[in-house]
UniProtKB/TrEMBL annotation:
GO terms for molecular function: DNA binding; DNA-binding transcription factor activity. Gene3D superfamilies: GntR ligand-binding domain-like, Winged helix-like DNA-binding domain superfamily/Winged helix DNA-binding domain. The lineage of its organism: Bacteria, Pseudomonadati, Pseudomonadota, Betaproteobacteria, Burkholderiales. It comes from the Bacteria. This is GntR family transcriptional regulator. Residues 8-76 form the HTH gntR-type domain. Pfam families: FCD (PF07729), GntR (PF00392). Keywords: DNA-binding, Transcription, Transcription regulation.
Length: 242
């Protein structure tokens, strides 16, 4: 077993930190990474170590370097910023097989309750600010009756939550499943608004649920965050059974 030197430890730390950053940026739609100097300060290592870590991730296909432009997440990764509407082919399958919607809700119940719990335990100050800002965007969208903006903020919130969990497996799994989950969240929002008499009340309830999740994360209360997420997903399921 090779001896772990300070240099190799620093490189390993930089690579692990960079992998987490790749997941976070890939999930919230920012494909370009910060400059080397900023990364070195954030990770507490030298720019040389950051450069070596970047090259390792380039060789793995996770990053791409563009001369004069910077370092970018590889273009074949799922893009969280892609327009969630009109629906992709996956939604056509959901329309043809409604049971898939229930399956997706079950999947989200398992995955997102865990993500909310971990985010409450592990989110840093920047991530908590971003989650609160996204809830603010949702609040404005609900106030304005802007269903498209609400759906976009809702999707962004859940993507940020996965990144804030700081769990590499959850983050990678979400990155792979994000297209389906994004479409599911968006369709739920649009479908929920088809009944004009209930649309405003349901939008307000969805907002309150996201506020509760965010508030629990800001308080660093993992049990409350997981419970608030469970209540949100249960609500999403109930509104289509009515």
């Amino acid at each position: 077993m090779p001896r772990i030197t300070p240099a190799s430890s620093a490189l390993q730390h930089a690579m692990q930190s960079l992998e987490r950053l790749v997941l976070e940026h890939g999930l919230d739609g920012r494909p370009r990474l910060p400059p080397e100097r900023e990364l070195a300060q954030r990770f507490g290592v030298s720019r040389t170590t950051v450069r070596a870590a970047i090259q390792r991730l380039v060789s793995r296909g996770m990053l791409q370097t563009r001369q004069g432009s910077g370092v970018f997440i590889a273009s074949d990764r799922p893009a969280a910023a892609a327009a969630p509407w009109p629906p992709a082919p996956w939604l056509g399958l959901v329309d043809a097989q409604p049971a898939l919607r229930a399956d997706t809700l079950e999947f989200r119940m398992v995955f997102e309750c865990a993500a909310a719990r971990f985010a409450a335990q592990r989110a840093d100050a920047r991530e908590r600010r971003e989650l609160a800002g996204t809830v603010g965007n949702m609040r404005k969208a609900v106030r304005d009756g802007d269903v498209a903006a609400e759906a976009a903020a809702d999707t962004a919130f859940h993507a940020q939550l996965a990144g804030a969990s700081h769990n590499m497996m959850l983050g990678r799994f979400y990155a792979n499943a994000i297209a389906s989950l994004r479409e599911h969240i968006t369709r739920n929002t649009y479908d929920a608004g088809r009944d004009a008499a209930l649309a405003a009340r349901r939008a307000l309830e969805r907002l309150r649920q996201h506020e509760a999740i965010c508030e629990a994360i800001l308080r660093q209360a993992p049990d409350d965050a997981a419970l608030a997420m469970r209540q949100h997903i249960e609500f999403v399921g109930r509104q289509f059974q009515a």
